[in-house]
């Protein structure tokens, strides 16, 4: 079971200009094979499916707890996409004015036909996320190696998305994900080390470019955000501290568990787009509905 | 963001006998077009994508809150599948004994090759869940009608799954989902009524067979579980009470909001399946790992 | 069985200029999840699969009859796409002149590689239509609710396509489909009302923008086209009049059955595109073939 | 545009016993890559997309006319599947009796979960038909060669389906399709000959087993059914006689055009399956609906 | 088993300018339904699956030998794509400079996110190649007709790709493939003739435009390259000469077998793209790795 | 370019009894996500796409050389499937005898409808292999980690396939693949170590069960087959010895390069299946064809 908290992990700046093609590219971080839907669902199913958890509880706790954090990542990427799309066509209520004219040349037409200029669980080519992306073999060592690889693949995609898209909305989001995803790479490396004794330290970073090269990530790492695993549960998952400890493989700082989650920020109120009938066309109708419900 | 609570919504009985083909059928309720992955992801994305939520907050809260409950449903279906699969092949560590011999005739070979006799985000034919199942048009009226239809389709599948699979594991789970899913059908009907004035009461039940015909569901409805929307958040989503009120369309009992979630039950510890190397082959190795980590 | 009549339901104007990206967008109305392939195939299969039709004949007739009309809609959308694509590359027989050079930047490359600048059963992102779009549960109430929702989703897509694409070819076609699809929304609403007693009138229009806001649709509604169900069969399906009657939910005008189909118009003769070898390269060869066959 | 005639091309016998796995196999002839959905949609789109039809009318007419016949084939295969599935689970209204218990082991679970024991546009493994199966290059010669190959592939599948499934329902249907599909193989061979002069006679039959080896097909060929192209239009497509003429490549009998379609037979009334809520659960409710509508 | 020779069949010129959208279009020839992955895999599987090869060895040899040549074709198309993509973004190691900025508008974002500006087994819309493209019925006549059609479809795509993309890289490659693929069309036509006696000569060329119209192909045909089947094996497949003989159907020149393969050319060394971390970011690191390994 | 050698790497024993469901399971090792099509195509594309190979030649050589070996693995798995399917239905030429009757209950109907009881590039559920399984990021470290993981995943699947299927055909094949695939796991681990200095020795074996537990694999390892990388090229790829050296991580024996490939065995002549028209129906026709061609 989950409790949902209506906050975003960070304060997402609004873009100066909407940019549908940037939004289309960022979709890879949401619905791509190495996007946040994949990390969320891989760890969620691995936690449901964990065999022998009585004996291996710290591993179960680690996977389940990271799964919970990934929810906040699909949320963040979705909101970044939504902000990049808001205002990207002509607001208004007259269909004959061709208000969606520019959408004909946009890279992801689903943003304008299937959704109301908002995120969908698809990748940068508009292909839907699929359950075939979930790996859950049941063999703990193999699942951990998978997860380590998955996080590295995800990191590579984040780096490339950063390099494709300018502006504070995307980059603040990607910078944060580089840091937090970075803690997941380290967490799975630590888990593999605890399980087998193999030391993966020399592999870092993968690909071979440090988070410090990304100003938005560097700023967060200077605050120590790369050293922390939050505990995303009021009472459970405490035993991750048996795995998440020791020095960070890149800068040697001490890994530590925080028995709380980030304070968070109120998600942006997405503006109405009447030309998309989202949430409706007629402002009077919406006012009327609002009135009616509060009676 | 979410907080995860390591509990199942109900106490799932263990099956007398494992049943791989029953597990394969139940997958439809997890990864099918009308399964719980679909309800979870539809409402989750609709909540991220909601435009004009400042004016229409009760609708936003309703969708976001139901999304949160759906997480507990993918969890329940997954555990039911896992219980039906545990022990379905011959436990042991000698591969030459053909311990997975029976799997050759099972309907879902992924349960034995891709997973360790556990759930996957696929449907009853093994086809993966896809993001194409998410509808998020941005038009509130249309999204609500979609959700109403989706819940009715999901209900039809639950009824058929119940009729396919005997035994307490599946039926306890399906009985619970019939009741809780039933509250979602009513919730979307109420939301449509509040938004437009149209009264959908006479449509119930869809399909035309009452939950009362399913003993496990009837027992729960006698306790009033069909009258309640839980609030799946420590502080948010309270305004659903502006929509979730009035008489239940089937039995006229009073709909009410409960500012809490179910107490829940500790999920079953899934037994080891060494022939699947899940979580590993050698019990000594697992003991050793357990020892090592607790140092 | 069907009889095919080599006519289009309306007289499609030729575009002033070809527009490949407009054609790519319009594909959503053909091969998209809510496109005409979906309405055609949903109702066609539901009619084949109808159980108990002896007792519920008007419902069977309604679904079967609307299915037949949908054929004329896939035809219309296909021809609109074909007209938008004709002439969009450089006509000629010399491949070294890079006659398809502009296609490299077009949104749907299949139009130039797989087809000869003509329609394909794919959506606006080039993803193929799939049989997974067909819903046929066998439960009449549920199938009707599905169909009602499907038509509303289709209407939303038509509205957005209209807003994306200027010019008389697309808009004449979309205007007509808004009116005719509108009669299908009403028909399924009426069928639900007849079946259950629930009155869906207050839901209209979905999304909340009237057909009257679209000049091409308004002109047709002023002629009463939104009040009519044609009968797409020489002898069958007459009992739809038991469902299709009463006032139109939006303007109160009287619904009526017409025991005929539209007169129709000769489809445009699509010009040759020799650079695509469509239908061939050499005009002399084509003349020769024409001569030979008429011997 | 089409007119639909509520008749089946042949009189389909009811099976002695239902057979879900036979129905699952027969699905290949409906929704498989070489099934009737493919022939229907290939020729339909090729006819919409035909360039230069003023000069090449007999070819256009041939493709369009065969497309129209294919509709009667998807209808026939669907009804055969429906007959094989009817009665395959336990009729009744008590879900606790596990009326669908046997479906857990059936090869196509969609028949029991997604549909009401009826046909779906999927193949023998339950994979959906896809628009990617449509070939429409615009080059007449290439499209004809494709169609010739497609019909040969379809013939191979029919032969194998015949060999897999006993009983009069499937075999009457397949026997008819072997004969009628056989006329399409010949038609495309003739069209290629008329277009290019190449004589394909020696290729027949493909695969190398004659229709005469199939008693149900032989009986129909003895009546000359393999010599006829029907004209599936009240007024159009007459020029096919410029292609469809000369001797049959297998038995030398004279090919001839019939300006009519088969008389046809009333489709079977599919029995109610209350355990699938198809069309509903309660017979009283259905009676009541029937009464209400006739008011 | 295979032996791999690290050479390309031809000397691929480098493009004057990179062109991502041209590369995207050329992908159709690699991963499209009628691309080289399809020809490679169709013939490879048909050769593994060939029944009765003791009696029909020349047919087996022909299919197996052509399969081997197709490997050199996926190689060539891949390198052409790689050359068109190299240098298409800004080389450098500073991610904040938005080095991949232009990729946001490119037609195939996978080239920049999933690969390092290199080829992938996808088509011109980015959809992955699928095993569903493999036809292997086991009936020799039908498989040969399929292969003949497949090669014709592939030829049509090559012609269109040529017409879409200017510049020597693509056109040298396509010109070569037109000639070599042309020998495969003839080979399957000859095999059909040998098997059945049917003469397909009059069908050529398909589509109806000669290779001679493509300067790069014409130059190679003037050297006789269209008359040759190479033998892609040190010792096997010699019996193809029983099929590959007689006059070429287009120009009457004599078909002949060459018991060798082309000499080939060293494949281009693809330049580093540090902004894609391909093969790494830091040139010093790469030098260091190179040093370390040679110790 | 490749040279194909018409030999199988090992001598595959024929099964005592055909077993279609075993064949269906073994398909996972061919067309599954972790099957041999995936290893073949991943390394093949990574070799085409390798950037900076002048500086990193041993890595390029290693990937390219392993790619070449994988071809012999798709061949072996395909032949194992073919042997398991041969004779699994009733041989004969009379279709009315329902010779394929048993296929109706088989798990993979494509084996009987699409192929002639032979292998297809699909997985154990009949889903086709897809190009989406290819990972080729261009970052050498990441690609190597991917390959290491892929081989571990492939090993897990081989173990499970071994445990599912009895009999010498499957087990001889899987035993060989366990050993040869094992050398690929070690090779990628060595490459990672050479590149980064990280020692992965303690991870072995993954999953945690030694090849020595599988008699067919143990026998081959006793001959030292796990210590060898063959060179699959007459002249290229020699520099792999700079990576493939040192002690084997599991038994400490010395890794060594062999500049040759296995001698190989003539592939089995697959028997005719006339009921599948494979390669044809009539033995006289086949004899006649054989005669004709040798003229």
Structural description of this entry:
The structure is a homohexamer of 295-residue chains. The first copy, chain A, has 295 residues and is mainly alpha-helical. Helix content of chain A is 45%, strand content 3%. Chain A is built from 8 helices and 3 strands, in the order E-H-H-H-H-H-H-H-E-E-H. A two-stranded parallel ribbon of chain A has the order 2-3. In chain A, helix 2 (36-49) runs antiparallel to helix 5 (140-164), helix 3 packs antiparallel against helix 6 (168-196) and helix 6 (168-196) crosses helix 7. The longest helix of chain A is centred in the first third of the chain and has 29 residues, at 57-85. Chain A is elongated and about 65 Å long. The two termini of chain A are 33 Å apart. The mean pLDDT of chain A is 97. Chains in contact: A-B, A-C, A-E, A-F, B-C, B-D, B-F, C-D, C-E, D-E, D-F, E-F.
């Amino acid at each position: 079971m989950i409790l949902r908290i209506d906050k975003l992990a960070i304060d997402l700046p609004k873009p100066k200009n909407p940019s549908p093609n940037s939004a289309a590219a960022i979709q890879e971080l949401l619905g791509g094979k190495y996007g946040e839907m994949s990390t969320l669902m891989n760890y969620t199913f691995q936690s449901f499916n964990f065999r022998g958890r009585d004996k291996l509880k710290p591993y179960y706790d680690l996977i389940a707890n990271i799964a919970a954090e990934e929810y906040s990542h699909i949320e963040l990427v979705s909101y970044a996409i939504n902000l990049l799309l808001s205002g990207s066509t002509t607001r208004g209520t007259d269909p004959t004015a061709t208000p969606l004219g520019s959408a004909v040349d946009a890279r992801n037409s689903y943003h304008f036909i299937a959704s109301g200029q908002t995120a969908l669980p698809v990748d940068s080519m508009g292909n839907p996320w699929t359950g075939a992306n979930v790996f859950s073999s049941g063999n703990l060592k193999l699942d951990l190696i998978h997860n380590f690889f998955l996080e590295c693949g995800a990191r590579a995609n984040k780096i490339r998305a950063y390099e494709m898209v300018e502006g504070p909305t995307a980059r603040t989001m990607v910078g944060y994900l580089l840091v937090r995803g970075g803690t997941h790479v380290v967490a799975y490396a630590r888990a593999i080390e605890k399980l087998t004794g193999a030391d993966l330290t020399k592999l870092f970073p993968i690909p071979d470019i440090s988070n410090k090269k990304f100003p938005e990530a560097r700023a967060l790492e200077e605050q120590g955000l790369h050293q922390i695993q939050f505990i995303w549960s009021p009472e459970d998952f405490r035993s991750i501290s048996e795995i998440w400890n020791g020095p960070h493989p890149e800068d040697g700082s001490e890994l530590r568990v925080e028995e709380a989650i980030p304070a968070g920020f109120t998600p942006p109120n997405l503006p109405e787009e009447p030309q998309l009938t989202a949430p409706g066309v007629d402002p009077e109708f919406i006012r009327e509905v609002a009135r009616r419900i509060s009676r």
